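Re: the 315-residue chain
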Amino acid sequence: MYKGKSVCVIIPAHNEETQIAGVIESLPDFVDHIVIIDDNSSDNTVEVVEQYRAQNPKIVLLRHSENRGVGGSMATGYKYAAEQGFDAAVRMDGDGQMDPADMPALLDPVVTDQTDFSKGNRLFTGEAYRKIPKVRYFGNAFLSLFTKIASGYWHVADSQSGYSAINKKALKTIDWDHMYRWYGQPNDVLVRLNVHNFRVRDVPVSPVYNVGENSGMKIGKVIFTIAWLLIRLFFWRMKEKYVIRDFHPLIFFYALGVFFYLVMLVLLIRMIYVWAVTGNIPNINALAMFFAFMSGSQFTLFGMWFDMESNKDLK
């Protein structure tokens, strides 16, 4: 129990035989259940967990017969936590990159009902720039910006941090079966939380790297995959939150922004074609293109502003 609230830790694990023991041993005593989801590992992850489970009744091992990705593992863990009625569930990865010493800071605002979901932010201090590999650091910054737009949580950053705590109400509300399965899961869950108007808070946590982890993430591929996911999630959130559940006029601003950007693209293609054929840039075409660009930018920025105002109480 933590401050009178029941807490479980959910640990997705895929081929973590060298890391999982250290994660289990490092967990605080106040944790009531340690829920480990083996995502069809091909190494000795299950055997290692079974050895610890024989000595520790807190450990629950859930196994997948096929690889469902980190999001699929978290869906299994979150559904278990909701069914068991835990007051809070903390996500920790099985690779040892999340410091258990930060767990109380994540749990405090959740168990005291200051927020519904707290997530780690490794960017608050200058340590992140020194410790996180530069490609990941700048990729994270890029995705964090787009996650703000897609999720509506303009006050959060470090969107790729999976270290988080969630309360009972959110656990029981979100449809976990539809959560994205792969590396975009932290981004996906933020969008789903926003649709249901749950409060989200960033909590400073320590970046942990070079502890023997072996990441399967390919940055060059994942950054485009998640970027496309965020585009789809943005339009899904607009539909679910501002059309179906509670109509908001910001839809018109975003729609006009998209319309003028499409007009700009058509005019740009036409201008390039005429320039290539005749050697001259058509003045009216160019002016119309710039007008469409400025109009699209203004409508989009107004849409973002309205979205930010609409979500300001979810801090």
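The first strand starts at residue 7 and ends at 13.
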